Amino acid sequence: MSDNPVIRLPAMPRPCPICGKPATARHQPFCSARCTQIDLGRWLKGNYRVETDEPAEDSEEPAER
Ligand SMILES: [Zn+2]
Question: pTM higher than 0.70, yes or no?
């Protein structure tokens, strides 16, 4: 009901969306600055869409209830 809009990333490493390697805390959610640049490039090319009407992340696993 009153969820905080602030998303706190857990300390557990997530797979880099670019190459699939474990992400590092410094470059999360990516594994390195290189993948961050790649993602940034996609942003600039318009591959990413920022949808404000619907929640973008809906693939969260129901770990907690
Ligand atoms: Zn990567």
Answer: no
